[in-house]
Amino acid sequence: MSLGRGKYDFYIGLGLAMTSSIFIGGSFILKKKGLLRLARKGSMRAGQGGHAYLKEWLWWAGLLSMGAGEVANFAAYAFAPATLVTPLGALSVLVSAILSSYFLNERLNLHGKIGCLLSILGSTVMVIHAPKEEEIETLNEMSHKLGDPGFVVFATFVVIVALIFIFVVGPRHGQTNILVYITICSMIGAFSVSCVKGLGITIKELLAGKPVLQHPLAWILLLSLVVCVSTQINYLNRALDIFNTSIVTPIYYVFFTTSVLTCSAILFKEWQDMPVDDVIGTLSGFFTIIVGIFLLHAFKDVSFSLASLPVSFRKDEKTMNGSLSNVYEVLNNEEGLPCGIEYTGDNISRRNGNLTSF
Asked: pTM for this one?
């Protein structure tokens, strides 16, 4: 791949990834609105295993929006490396948080706005330091990568842990622990991104006139993608139905992105060709996004805005002045207390312990 063509593909992938985030962020709101409508009607909730949401048009609108976002995301993986495309999913968190404040009455305070800014800055840093060229160009190379012993061990571990969470941990703790269903979605998501990347390469080869449809790996990747996406939708619906959208979205982003970056590092080995400063920049951008998402949602229930800053300072000043006044009063009144009695703030107690309080 020439340098000019590589840059052209890079920016196409970047634009598609940003478009994907907008559609996916909006899909969370539409699906949540649909689930809330079903809950008001008394239908069996998705978190309890119900599937009444299949009759709700808002849920389908959210699914279509997510589908459009995933198509754009799918195309982005064909042009840009996973190290760039996946972390940009943070933009979907911002879209979801902003729309939640308008349509789900979930507040976005000063901490949340700072978190949005940090997430955008972190995404920008990751874009600057992301690898500009993709290593795998053909389906045969993809087949060779999938057979790498390191990836085989990683895939086996992920499958075993996911099955344990689905059949053992999920039924026991899925209703009370938000991490259970999100962990399932995230671990399976690592495979779905790998399948998407492989299918993207397949489509590019198909458009180039190569007989890739005769390659068994193309159909294996397609079948695996269907299974992984179906599993993700099922358990993500359960998490959204039980827990707050503004909590599910950022945790899912952190877990999912971490899983994909790990899988990408093992399978595609994109990190091996990156200079040290780009690796540090990519990790710094990712952790900046995590801090931004934490601020966005950790203090979401705190009523705090820029206008309340002067009020807070005045309250702190009054509290400090009041504390100093109390100290001065205690010191001035110490000489007036009876012998054997000491002032303790709220009580007056005798040193011999006979009189404990009034």
From this structure: 0.66
Question: What is the Cα–Cα distance from 138 to 296, expressed in whole angstroms?
Answer: 41
Buried b (16+ CB within 10 A) or exposed e, 279-297: eebbeebbebbbebbebbb
pLDDT band at 352 (very low <50, low <70, confident <90, very high): very low
